[in-house]
Amino acid sequence: MGGLAPPRSVYYINASMPSAYPTPVITTADLSIGYPVRRGVPRVVAGPLQLTLWPGELVCLLGPNGAGKSTLLRTLAGVQAPIRGQVTISGVSLASLTPEARARQLSIVLTERIDAGALTVQELVNLGRHPHTGWLGGLSAHDHAQVRTALVATGTEQFAQRLVSELSDGERQKVMLARALAQDTPLILLDEPTAHLDLPNRVALLRLLHQLARNMEKAILLSTHELDLALQAADRVWLLPANGELVAGAPEDLVLSGAFAAAFQREGLAFDPATGTFELHTPTGPSVQLLGDGPAVFWTRRALLRAGFVPTTKPTALRISIAT
């Protein structure tokens, strides 16, 4: 196809494949994503991508704004057509699936708040069973059991009779996840599920997703800007930098290889692989030898950086030693 960008690759960094499951839930072959533009020449955002997503794993899709994270999610969900290449779900081409068949293979949780009207939590989660019911939409005993399992797994059964409109952002996001679980698909896609949550709820949601992937053997892919939490929660990371060359691997491998820092490199911003955090301050003052162990050393280092000093373990004229 004319007008395609030069070939790009997915780079795997020590990314071992889970051996307990012989077949991935998602496979992509030479997938290029992007948008058609004027005169029929597409704008390729990333690709060609050779990706796999396995049952029982939580994968976080990370990258700077504009790199194509949402485009990739929409393409994997079948909402947006690829520029070229193929997406396979559970061994079947995504393009060949009817909307009903696709809804039995994947569920989606979006960032946008939905208007649930006067629906209760129970009624909204019941809607997750729609792809499995007959044309009358009645729920069988099995359907009710699936809904119950989803409510219990997400901790939403305690307010199942409340109106969705009365819920907090954190409660509402759990309910949307419960609806996706009730749909009982092997694949769950989430687009920035923590966007409107406070820190405790962001932590709780990522912990819950990690547990659900393991306990219910779901393949879960989410995009997020919660870089520090993703590094702790994800089994693997798909790192999509601005150049479209996706890097996949375990979080620790991406950090130690320097790929993570390179993807988010900005002037005046540095990623510290020792702490897994970004440094807000650019030290310009003298070096200080900082010795010791424990939390006090970590926070003393933070204070020195904020004051403009350069903490180091090498001998310097200035020296701070913290006894533990």
Structure report:
The chain has 324 residues and is an alpha/beta fold. It has three domains: 11-105 and 185-268, 3-Layer(aba) Sandwich (Rossmann fold); 117-183, no CATH class; 281-321, no CATH class. It is 30% helix and 23% strand. The protein is built from ten helices and 17 strands. The chain has a seven-stranded mixed β-sheet with strand order 1-12-11-5-10-9-8, sandwiched between helices. Strands 2, 3, 4, 6 and 7 form a five-stranded antiparallel β-sheet that branches. Strands 16-15-17 form a three-stranded parallel β-sheet, with helices on one face. A hairpin with a 4-residue loop joins β13 and β14 (277-279). The radius of gyration is 23 Å and the shape is globular. Mean pLDDT is 86; it is low at 1-9.
